[in-house]
Amino acid sequence: MAGNIIKRQGLNYLLGVCVPCAKQNAAKIRVKISDFDAHLLMYFNKYEFIYADDPEKRCKTGDTVLIQSLPRKLTRLITHKVVDVIYPLGDITDPITGKKVVAGKYRENIEKDAELYGNLESMYKYEKTPKRGITEGKRDFTAEETYMKYSDDPKDYDPYAVNPS
Question: Gene Ontology cellular component (predicted)?
Fold first, then answer.
């Protein structure tokens, strides 16, 4: 009778940053975990890498994503799935107010300060910038397939190689 009892596993949600991955239809996510040291009575950051199923290729390198654990493993490595891209790389939104943030200041406050002190021609125009992905293949190579490079030879430069150290 004890063998008939099915254990229910809760689905866990984690927040992490997408890093380069060479696996097909999967994303490698770096999740920060706080590790408690009982001797110092302090928490220290520890990073764990999790592979998540991403068949639509929604997340790119540098994006902050929300992942959910799967009820069963897809493969030996893939144990989670990508639920949503929370913050694309370089476009940060304050979660409480919903306003765009640049280096600790709201964008609208930066624009108001510029109006008070005078607009400069060299000022960056956030509303005129295209969304991420317009420079794919020209300056943005995050969509290209990457691989691990274990030798550091300055003569052998490859922008798609990732140094594991």
Answer: mitochondrial small ribosomal subunit
